[in-house]
Specification:
Elements: H1 10-17, H2 24-35, E1 40-43, H3 50-61, E2 65-69, H4 76-80, E3 81-86, E4 91-96, E5 103-107, H5 114-117, H6 121-126, E6 128-131, E7 134-137, E8 143-148, H7 161-164, E9 169-171, H8 178-185, H9 201-213, H10 218-233, H11 243-259, H12 267-278, H13 291-301
Parallel strand pairs: 1-8, 1-9, 2-5, 5-8
Antiparallel strand pairs: 3-4, 6-7
Helix pairs in contact: 1-2, 1-3, 2-11, 9-11, 11-12, 12-13
Length: 306
Amino acid sequence: MRESLAPEFVPLVDAVEAHLLGKRRAVTQTLAAFLARGHVLLEDIPGVGKTTLAKSFAAVMGLPFGRVQFTSDLLPSDILGVSYYDAAKGGFVLKKGPIFTPFLLADEINRAMPKTQSALLEAMEERQVTIDGRAYPLPEPFFVIATQNPLEEVGTFPLPLSQLDRFLCAFGIGYPDEASERRVLLGEGHGPLPEEPLVGEETIKEWFRRAEAVKLGDAMLDYLQRLVAYTRKSGRFHQGLSTRGALALASMTKAWALLYGRDYAIPDDLQAVAAEVCAHRLRFAEGATTLERIRYELTAHVPPDS
């Protein structure tokens, strides 16, 4: 029997899905990444709802929303901010950039030069930025959704591996199913966003605490380590998962368990998130790397009970 979301998370997922019809899995994956205190990279063609997902999610969570439209001439200071001398105050003052927001949409991130892309590295990992030698903490929570266009498009720059690794998970939204797209064509799914958030700050903090506290038993840790070892030793990939990748897999697995009402993780949780956590970190030695191929590779060759 297929599990259902825990009742406390259903209204939130329903509210976002109302603006992204037929994409419940993408919404749930985004919520899991948020609970795991990670960041999301949405990789897909323009026009399938990447920005809609980000804006709707921020609205129902009640998080102040910031957006940076990445372009080839964007500078790191356009994201982080600048320190300038204020004669009236007799010292340097920070003019904060858009990164100082709990929810940041980095739109079309791969249209910026690598130097500008790397401006997010410290922020995403350490939740602070350094400007002119001084560290400034970012808001809590701090959540980034970045969108990326296909690399075949003119004017795009591949994200460095170090930048990709800062994203907890990456996935596409894809085309809607026929019934959902028909509803979109009929004008559904374009209503106003909720005026009041569905969750409060204290609830979010409690969710973070509970996600971190989800138990990974010995059997689950064995399964996770077998999967990580397979990526490193099978010869199927150019390079295996790093330790950061293994930690990301553990965090996302625990968050998924919480979404389904459990304080302990089971193999189904790991299998549900493994492809989204691993696909942007792994490259097949032969043939194209796709989310579905990664999903099949990891579930077919690393069973939970081996």
